[in-house]
Fold this sequence. Notes:
Elements: H1 2-25, E1 27-32, E2 35-40, E3 45-50, H2 58-88
Helix pairs in contact: 1-2
Amino acid sequence: MFGDMMEKLQQMQASVAQSKTKLDSMSVSAKVEGIEVRMTGNRKVLDVIISDELMNDKEDLQDLLLTVFNKALEQADKINEAEMASSAKGLIPGL
Length: 95
């Protein structure tokens, strides 16, 4: 019984590691009024592009950056959760 649990744990660890690698190769992007943010499925920022027109208004730029980063994080969270659930499927009863 203990051996079965250890084997399942090792399978789950391997599956999670594989999912993290897969998520590193995925990217999401969000665009809001002249700003684009790209990040991996593991929520690491790859790129931030800001149009020149926004460089003159610091407050608007800050507000837009918050909005666009939160949008990108929401997208990354969704694919991250889906991938992790997929990797646990079959290893954890009931998923």
